[in-house]
Every structure is written in C-alpha cells, then in structure tokens.
Amino acid sequence: MQSISSAPAFHTLIRTDLQSEDEGFFSVLYEIIRRHPVLFTVLFMIPFVALLISMGLKWFYVFNDSAHYLSNFQIDPKTGTWSDTQRYFSPGIDRYIRELDIAGLLGGIVGIFIGLFVTVSTEKANRQKEKLNQQEMEHIKTQTNLLVQATQSLNTLMVDVSGKVNEKVLLMEGSDEILKGISKVVESAQSQGNDLLVLSNTARMEGIAPFRMEYVAKHADLKPHELRNATQFDYARKAEALQRDRTDVENKLKGAALYLQNMGSDAHVEFVTLNDQNEGATHAFLKYLGKVVNEHVSVETYRPGSNAILNQRDDIPHHNRFLVPSSAEEAMEPKSLLVNQLYKDHSQAIREMQELGIRVSKVNKTLPVQLFISSPRDNKPGIFGAFASVFLVVVQALVVGPPN
Q: Where are the transmembrane segments (predicted)?
C-alpha cells in the first residue's frame, strides 16, 4: 500500500502540465470567433472597420488635399446650395470626416485591441482554471477509487482470514490483552523469519489507552470504580505501568525489524497507519482523534505528584473519561492538551520507525480494524498466500471508543 501523494505536489504537477500545454493567443481567439461569430462581428469587426475607414478618409483629406479640406465651405443663404463644388461624397459625410479627431480615432482602435486582448486573456485563464478543476476532480476520483478498492480488499481479507485460519485469529479488546497478543505476533515473526505486517490507526501501540481511565484500571486488574478514592499520585503510577508495557511492545517490534534486517532475508516489517500530515482538506490522524475525543467524553488533567484525590465524576461513564498528566504551569485546555500529546506521539513514532528501516505507509481514511500479522514468506506475493499458517491479531477499530 502506498501513501497517498501530497496535495501541494499534485497542484505543482498540474500547473507544470498546464504551462506545457499553454494555448496560444490566436488559437484562443479563433476558438472565440468560432463559438461566437455574431458577437465578434458586432462588437469587434464592424466598429474596427468603421474606425479604420474613417481614419483612412481623415488621413487622405488632411495629407493629400489639405487646401480643399481646410477650406471653410458654407451654405449660400440665397440659393441654399453648398459652396463646395468638389465635394467627395455628400456635404454631410464630408462634414463628418472634417470633424473627426485623429487622436480619438487612434484611441478607439487601440481600445478595441485592448478589449480584444483582455477578452482572450480572460478566456485563457478560465480555460486553465477549468482544466485545473477537471484534473483535480480526476485526482479526487482516482484517490476515492483507490480507497474503495483498499476497503474492498480489506473486507475480502477478513472473509478469507475468518474462513481459512479461524483457529489462529484472535479478536481482542482491552489494552492488556491487545499488548500480549501483539507481543505474540512480533515474537512469531522474529522467531520464524516472517513478514510482520501491521495495520493500525495509531503509530504508538495502544497510544490512547494510557490516557483512558477504563483501560488504566483494566491493566491494573481493577474495576474503574475502585479508582474512586485513588490519589492522583497512585493513578499516575498505574498509568505509567501501562505506558511501560506499551513501550516494551514497541521496542519488541523495533527489535524484530532490526533482527530481520540483520538476518539478510527478504522478510520485513511494514506499518500502515494514519497520515500525520495535512493532505488537502483532510488531516487523517486529527480526524480520527475527533471521533475518539468527541463531545461525549470528559478530558481532565491531574498532577502525577499530587496526593489529592481524583475528581469524582459519577456523571461520566469510565470509558468516556480521559485523564492527562499536567504540570502546574500548563495552561492549555485539557482536551487540546490531550490531542496535542497524542499527535506528537503519533508523529514521533512514525519518524522513529522510519529511521529503523520499517516501511511506514500513510493512509488518509480511518482504518476499520487493526491487524497485526506474522506472515510466512512463500512464492505467492502478498499476505493472501500465507493463510495456512498465518498468526493474526484482530483488534476492534476505535478500540478506545465507546463499547458496543
């Protein structure tokens, strides 16, 4: 699975293509004439020809027959006849030509061409914008099709896994069980030289669990209500224990990646997770967090070194209560503090895995499940050829979300 290309890079590519395919001035003008011949004739050709003829007559009169042109002809009041016996057309047309202003004629002609240039330039800009929009729509359509195909492939995978290796598929919920299951998969991959394939919304193993009261309690073999009278110091120790176990599992995964690399085999670790960067109008990881840390949850801060009792919140279910450690100087709102911490952990985990040679692919759509697969290698590409002996852990998506 490849990461979806970035929007800025895509826009740059489109602009480069448009520049290379830039239509010429006259080709656009010809297209305008072909599409709107009547408007072009009425608004450009007729005024232009009229001004051109007027300019020609004016210049002919002034420079070739100056004496006649500059004479002051009048109508004889007695006979009522025009005194110019050598008129070129009628007295009215001659009078019209005499009163034309050369500067005005030149300005009119130049104005017509300026209007034509503006019209063609605007049409070119509109065409480029239309092409850009069309290519963006094609890009969005392509990426949407890819996401649909990926979802269909994942559904097919789940069906095949359930049917072919049902005895080795574990469906888990709860951070403690999940961490143990992941450890088994990692150990299987390392001991057997298998590919280790991971599909997870968060790059940190159970990255949200240490901040959730329900999972902190489960990890400590307690019921959530048994933390009712716990001090903030006691709660911090239990949350840190979950953090340590989570870190141990992450270190096992990193160790397996280094071990497989040092073996010199083709086996590798591949990690597919949510994109930590802003792709277009979607920030995949923050959008995922918005589904978890939503308006129904309560996010509070606590002091890890305080002996004060945790706040009593009987109105909030334990699975909707998040606690994030904070110092006295921390002024950030609790929910923002939690989101900021989770985002930093996610981005840091991606960088650390990439530095260790783990193949990290980023997707922009929340994953429906989390998979941890130790896949034996054989001649058939992909994980579908390994169903006979695959060891798989399936974790419910949004494992920190409200229970069903």
A: 38-61, 102-121, 382-401
Say how far apart CA 330 and CA 324 lie, in whole Å. 11
Domain ranges for the chain: 25-75+85-153, 208-262
pLDDT in tens, 187-202: 888 888 888 888 888 9
Q: Is the pTM of this model over 0.70?
A: no
From CA 94, how far away is CA 85, in angstroms rounded? 12
In order of 197, 324, 357, 401, the CA distances from 257 in angstroms are 11, 31, 7, 30
Instruction: Provide the greatest CA pair distance for the chain.
Output: 127
Residue 172 structure tokens: 């888990």
Give the whole-angstrom CA distance, residue 205 versus residue 242.
11
CA 182 – CA 269 distance, rounded (Å): 13
**Residue keyed to tokens 């097919």:** 156
Terminal CA-CA length for the chain = 30
Rounded distance between C-alpha atoms, residue 395 and residue 173, angstroms: 6
Cα–Cα distance for residue pair 83/158, rounded to 1 Å = 105
